[in-house]
Amino acid sequence: MRTFAVFVLGATLALASAAYVPSTAQVKYAEKEFLHKQEDLLLLFRHLYEKDWNPQLVAYAKNFHFQESSELFQHEPTAPWAKKLWSYYEHGLLPKGEVFSVYEKQHREQAIALFRVLYHAKNWDTFYKVAAWARYYVNEGMFVYALTVAVTHRPDMAGFVLPAPYEISPYHFINTEVIQRAQQYKMQGYYGMEKVDGVYTVTMPSNYTGWYVHTNAEQKISYFTEDIGLNSYYYYLHTDYPFWLGGEEFGLAKDRRGELYLYEHQQILARYYLERLSNDLGQVPIFSWWTPIATGYYPDLQYYNGHSFPARDNYYHIVQNRQLHQVWDYEKRLRDVIDQGFFVLPDGKTVNLNTPESVDVLGNLIQANPDSDEHRFYKYVAMYARIVMGAAIEPVEPYQVIPSALEHYESAMRDPVFYQIYKRIVSYYHQFKGHLDEYTYEELYYPGVKVDGVVVDKLQTYFDRFDVDITNAIDIEPEPYVPGRYEGFGEIEYKPDPVVIKARTVRLNHKPFTYKVSLTAEQPGKAAVRVFLGPKYDAHGGQYTLNTNRENFYELDYFVQELAAGKNVITRNSVNFNGYVRDRTSFYELYRSVMAGYTGAQKFQLDMSEAHCGFPNRLMLPKGKKGGMPFQLYVIVSPYKAPQVTQYAGFDPVLSCGVGSGARYMDTYAFGYPFDRYIDEKVFYSVPNAYFQDVVIYHKSEGEL
Asked: Is the pTM of this model over 0.90?
């Protein structure tokens, strides 16, 4: 594929540690061959639950004889996985219409086999034939999961865009009554529909679970926990680093995946806590496995096959079963080994946990991923905890499951208990860091640099409206498949849906703002600048100590800056903060842009503005309060420390997040530095290259803004 690029380079190179989106401002434009593939890829996800939706896709599936394909069975390393997948197909593949869960071992093994066949397919043609075959014959959830992970990790698919998860399967994101209303509207002939941009469009209001069934105070922040952008972000965090994927072939260990796993969850908790403070909810509750769980959850979601997502009552009694005791055992082993400072492998080899770099070893151990040093004694703590807490319904048949919201990465963050579980897991991270020495003055100080002040615009948040395309939740009339009509594997024809159905949600947003950092440098140099947002007061209005509060600071921005000798003023606009992405383009608009690019009517832009690995820009600020809520900004300017592998080496940062490259990060500081360790306050407050600035966040109505 040939592309040409337009380069737009600023003076600042940057990277956010909350999400690690490549920060290059370069833009490329796709050519016709790329757009042809992009179109075909998009159509695989349309009307997911109707295998006969598109007759040409049906022809692709039926004309591809999987078991006779020399492209699969005579090509290494595809062959062994193709044999395994075909064996599953013949003797017990998860049926279509059943609920897929990556936490169910049989489901996971089948999904891995499909992923491997897709990942190792020798070229695009083979990849697409297998994908079309799987769309027709493989369980819908399993198909989407395996295909998404394969597209994410295949180097030759960098730059391809998948539909947003909430458009592929609205059932995991949109409340049952909205989807039910949409289906009724379709059955009644879309009475009263409006034509928008040449397409009949129906828009229906959608709300969060708290308005329908109020179970506890936690639902005050359901606008945050059930935000479709937030839940999509977490889903993609998993598809980037699946707990079952690893080894040298994929290179995930080069990305400090263990440390990243712990830090990402710590940052999610910190951001969640800021939202709790904005709603007077205070600390994330601590629970015990042996007493009733106070926080219930009614998800108000329903699977495509009609089963409801299991609900959990307030003061839920955990079933005392084998999985609960496994979780308890694994937790105790982790606590013990952290305090011990080492662990012993089955062959007698000792692994050190006393160095700062050992946090990566610990993270792998906790996630129990393939890059972990030990798999027998330390296993899936988070997975078993989610299963135990989810109150999932036990199935009759072995392949049937009815998982809770906690057991899907795209819906787990909706449940308040998710944050309670990860508060326990992140406590092991803090326990480990507690054994490291505090940062010394020399480790915090940047010689010759003094931050003189920080000025921040007025910070204002509000609720706006966003329309979600939920057309995939509606069955449409398929075009009949006529054997022999579509021979071979030609171009797929797409007839646009007769109607687009949207759910209008209300979600948190903020007014763009700017901050300026004024500093003095005695000589020119290259600096790493980190900006954190944290609470000023606790839930009771009391003053925090820094050590009590350090876990609650959320990394807002992170960049590398060239300093000139003398006075420097660094200006940053929230629109350009690193690690954040804008809202995803809807399927309809994306498809229209692809086709316009294909016909030459316009150029199709490739960049990282909607990268899957980014955190929603809308959610960078907590809601605050109508009369204003005090927070504090912390800025630290540190000497730049170059990474061992040059950033962006081995991948194109215009097209890819660089997962598995070992070149995602701009420096070698610990994630969360300098708040990651216990703080010596006399030292911390004395360095001149850091600065605390009080800020106030106001929550306004749209009308007021």
From this structure: yes
